[in-house]
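pasting for the record
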Amino acid sequence: MPDTRSALLDSAIRLLDAGGVEAVTLREVGLGAGVSHNAPYKHSRTRKRCSPRSPRAN
């Protein structure tokens, strides 16, 4: 089972591929990862840092 951070990043990538930047919300990322909609806030300080294309995401 992937760790939460990896699951969040995978979810963000799926959302981005499916609907572009507008589809990527922290709530949808959390729901897509199967975790609380608040989980992305605990694992990243900002939306930008949640972005799979962000240099800090790696």
